[in-house]
Amino acid sequence: MTMTLVIAAVLATLVTVAYGRYRLGPVQHDWESALSPEAHRQLDEVRSRMIVDAALADDALLGAEAARSAGDWGEACRLLDLGVWALTQATPERLTRLRGMGVAIRVAAAIMPPPPVKAVRFRLGSVKAATGAGELLHHVLITPAERMLLRLWMIACAMRLALHVARRSAAALRTRPQAARHWQHYVAGRADWGTADEEHLASFRLLLESAAAADRAESLAR
């Protein structure tokens, strides 16, 4: 009897989520069409910054892997430190924007329903566990504003955790440069930081779309 109830609850949840996505499709298209040229400019500016930061971190990692293959452990560690420096320099700007978005959401007239930050997109166990808990909580919360605030918090959490692992792994490799486990953790940390950065950009777009749609609705009501 208990198992039957559990299965029924799971099926009901899946149906609700699927139906919500079906209904959200036309709404999402309408909100995206409201994005102004100025909003597109702001979005492109953030995206360009992301591309530059990713290029710095990725070039450092590629160089480190090449040095590792050549047996030049000192150069490999130096380049890993450079990659950590690039991520460390970029992180405060991302966290500041996430906090700013949180403030904007609290006073916004309307927020487009956001998707959860999906744990399956990440590699590190700590990040997957945190975002997995966030996914469950996402479906408990009711309003789009509450879900968006949770989404921003999860992105910031994932970014901090990924940077911490990358930094710790780079430090460990300075004393044990041939330890494959530390290399794997560094690569996973770099990848997860990038995934969190992509989620940050998607959230920024959602906020811009919400603001543009609210402005359009206000102008139509006049």
Provide the descriptors you would attach to this structure in a database record:
6 helices; mainly alpha; elongated; 0% strand; 222 residues
First-to-last CA distance: 57 Å
Q: Name the beta content range.
A: under 5%
Helix content: over 70%
Detail the poorly predicted runs. Answer: 1-31
Q: How many helices in DSSP terms?
A: 6
The value of Rg in angstroms is 21 Å
Decide which structural class fits the backbone. Answer: mainly alpha
Average pLDDT reading: 84
**Order of SSEs:** HHHHHH
Number of strands: 0
Largest sheet: number of strands, sense, barrel closure:
none
Number of domains: 1
User: Shape from CA axes?
Assistant: elongated
3D architecture notes:
Residues 1-31 have low confidence and may be disordered. Helix 2 packs antiparallel against helix 6 (180-221) and helix 5 packs antiparallel against helix 6 (180-221). This protein has one domain (34-221). With 222 residues, the chain is mainly alpha-helical. The protein contains 6 helices and no strands.
Précis, in short:
The protein has 222 residues and is an all-alpha fold. It has helices at residues 2-33, 37-69, 73-107, 125-140, 144-175, 180-221.
How would you summarize the topology of this molecule?
Blueprint: H1 2-33, H2 37-69, H3 73-107, H4 125-140, H5 144-175, H6 180-221
Helix pairs in contact: 1-6, 2-3, 2-6, 3-5, 3-6, 4-5, 5-6
